[in-house]
Amino acid sequence: MSDSPFSRAFPRRTALRTLAVAAVAVPVALGSSANAAPRSPKAASLWHPVPSTDGLKAFEGVEADRGHLHPTRKYVYAEGGDHYRFNIWRDDRDTTGGGDRQRTEVKGMVQNGTALKMHDGETWTIAYDMYLPSTLHGTSKFTHIFQTKTPSTNAGPWVTLDLTRSGGKELISARAYANPGSPSIASTDLAPLRDKWVSVQWTLTIGAKGTAAFLIRDGAGSGAPIAAQGSMTKVNIPDQGDYVRPKWGIYRSVQSASSDIVDTYLLFRNYTASRK
After folding, report:
1. Would the keyword Signal turn up in this protein's UniProt record (predicted)?
2. Among 20, 92, 182, 245, which residue has the fewest nearby CB atoms (within 10 Å)?
3. How far apart are CA 236 and CA 267, in angstroms?
4. How far apart are CA 219 and CA 144, in angstroms?
5. Does the pLDDT at position 2 exceed 70?
6. For the whole model, what pTM was predicted?
7. Distances from the Cα of 216 to the Cαs of 127, 172, 209, 219, 221, in angstroms?
8. What is the spatial distance between Cα 14 and Cα 134, in angstroms, rounded to a whole number?
9. Cis peptide bond upstream of 151, omega within 30
10. For domain 29-275, which architecture applies?
């Protein structure tokens, strides 16, 4: 299999705008979203990484190809100076789950060399822009593109952002994943949010009976229309005597339909995090 499959992910009209083809193609969507320029980090934010200068030092670590099956592949990196790119291939397999899942993720928030830690009783607001290509599908099994976990116990995920599928209908859903039944905090159709930058905001109060609020906009920036929002109390997000940290990327089961487990990618930019 070729290790540069992503040129097939773009519509023909986008491909015609591409000026060059690299080993792993750069999505022309960045040019098509010129009306949604990256925002400047907020002065009050504790975390506001700049991809071009912070690179992967903005995170506590990367979890991708942990079995070293594909050493020539480039999984997570700063691209274009203003965003992070996460690549995943259909034949990737994580070392967990007995070969039934795959993972390209980063974990934690690091500013100036210091890891930021979310503790019980604290309220954090985490915001970012996200680009979801048409090749990143909702699935019948789990596909998380955001998770919160407790490192020392590897417990969780507590709260997640999921891409789901029921028949032909695909949804993006913020969920209280560790609560009974993994209820949805907010959910909307995935299709309208594809192939453009959208803005996401979480407000999380950490604890075994915490709170979670989620908002996603149909476009980038505070002026874009709200696509979905919701909040929930008594959400299980405990630090368990350690701390809670977020994770971003693609973590999915390969037990979904093979037509949904295809080579794809995910982009993030404008990360910020603040604590009340």
Report:
1. yes
2. 20
3. 28
4. 21
5. no
6. 0.86
7. 10, 10, 24, 9, 10
8. 12
9. no
10. Sandwich (2.60)
